[in-house]
């Protein structure tokens, strides 16, 4: 009985630790590739569950046919350094890290990427922009 109680307490502690590590609980939308907004590119989101699991997903509507494509995957527990996200629908792998207010496109080591694809229309002349986005509720 003591062993079962100890395992129960350890499980509760682990769950509380996972919750406290995540910068928030709930769903947030983001758009790192701002330069392509409105062209039918996917709208991405992340959803952190109470148990610390982080889900990433996207919804894309084909402007010509109106057909909707969506996918959601569990990327595991929150990792502040970098999270690998692989969407099977488009065979796309993203490396991301985020805090309470922003999300960043990174390389495998967590280094924030810069690209002209990440520039908004007003920034396109600068040639290379930081790949980040605010997290919207």
Structural class computed from helices and strand pairing? mainly beta
Poorly predicted runs: 4-19
Largest sheet: 4 strands, antiparallel
Measured between the Cα atoms of the first and last residue, the distance is 45 Å
Main sheet strand line-up: 1-2-3-4
- Residue-averaged pLDDT: 83
Search tags:
single chain, 137 residues, four-stranded antiparallel sheet, 10 strands
Structure write-up:
There is one protein chain. By secondary structure, this protein is mostly beta strands. It has one helix spanning 2-21; strands at residues 26-30, 43-48, 53-61, 68-77, 83-87, 92-98, 102-106, 114-115, 129-130, 132-134. It has a 4-stranded antiparallel beta sheet, with no helix packed on it. Strands 5-6-7-10 form a 4-stranded antiparallel beta sheet, with no helix packed on it. It has a two-stranded antiparallel ribbon with strand order 8-9. A hairpin with a 4-residue loop joins strand 2 (43-48) and strand 3 (53-61). The longest helix has 20 residues, at 2-21.
